[in-house]
Specification:
- With 227 residues, the chain is α/β, with parallel strands linked by helices.
- The chain folds into two domains: 85 residues, Transcription Regulator spoIIAA; 103 residues, 3 Solenoid (Pectate Lyase C-like), CATH 2.160.20.
- It is built from three helices and 15 strands.
- β14 and β15 form a beta hairpin.
- It starts with 5 loop residues before the first strand and ends in a 9-residue tail after the last strand.
Length: 227
């Protein structure tokens, strides 16, 4: 059995696939990873893919409680074991991911994946730090010395002068948008850049990853991403 867990964004939140040779080892690995991220996962809805693990109802209840203490909601357990399915259903947990909407055969765009969005209705000042597993929207400025870390997109309806990391789980489809974009440092997934000296008047811009490079373009809200 794999000893490495995997985390990815899905339509309904985050999907965690457990590793670990035993149930205790799998829990320790997952919770240690969550704890190492501070408040980054706070508010996330979690579905857990169990793999070969076959926990009892009491084990699943314990898992739900441990996640709740960390501000996370366990809503689904994915397994092929009939006894575990019954145990999960006895706790009112889902045992399958919802089907795509009727009439839509297209998979969810990875840029839309995540665990919802966090709305910040204030300016972030030096020393302020925002971490969230999904998208982050700021109605205000992000001043030098402030930092945003998001699992999805970062949208700033104001001046972006601080540090921002979008797609922090490795989502290379994430983007950063701002009405005035001049961050101290900008990261998307594992790629980083600093802003060059400004030329001309500020204008709304969006930064995306293009063939391994961070590229800034004029931001046209509501427009479709170029293919």
């Amino acid at each position: 059995m794999s000893s490495t867990l995997a985390i990815k964004g899905i339509r309904e939140g985050l999907l965690i696939t457990l590793g670990g040779s035993t149930w205790a080892a799998a829990l320790e690995e997952m919770l240690a990873h969550i704890d190492s991220k501070g408040d980054f996962f706070l508010g996330a809805r979690i579905a857990v893919r169990l793999g070969e693990h076959q926990p009892r109802a009491a084990d699943l209840a314990d898992l739900r409680g441990r996640l709740a203490k960390r501000g996370l909601t366990l809503w689904a357990v994915l397994t092929d074991a009939p006894a575990v399915v019954a145990a999960a259903q006895s706790l009112a947990l889902a045992t399958a991911l919802p089907s795509p909407p009727a009439g839509s055969d297209a998979p969810l765009d990875s840029a839309m994946a995540g665990s919802g969005a966090l709305l910040v209705e204030s300016t972030l000042h030096s020393g302020n730090r925002v971490e969230y597993a999904g998208h982050v929207v700021v109605l205000g400025d992000v001043n030098p010395g402030a930092k945003i870390v998001a699992g999805g997109h970062v949208i700033v309806w104001g001046k972006l002068r601080g540090t921002v990391h979008a797609g922090a789980h490795g989502d290379e489809h994430a983007m950063v948008c701002a009405l005035d974009l001049s961050p101290m440092q900008l990261r998307i997934a594992g790629h980083a850049a600093t802003s060059p000296p400004r030329r001309g008047s500020p204008q709304p811009e969006v930064v995306r990853l293009r063939q391994g490079n961070l590229v800034a373009e004029v931001w046209k809200p509501g427009g479709r991403e170029p293919k």
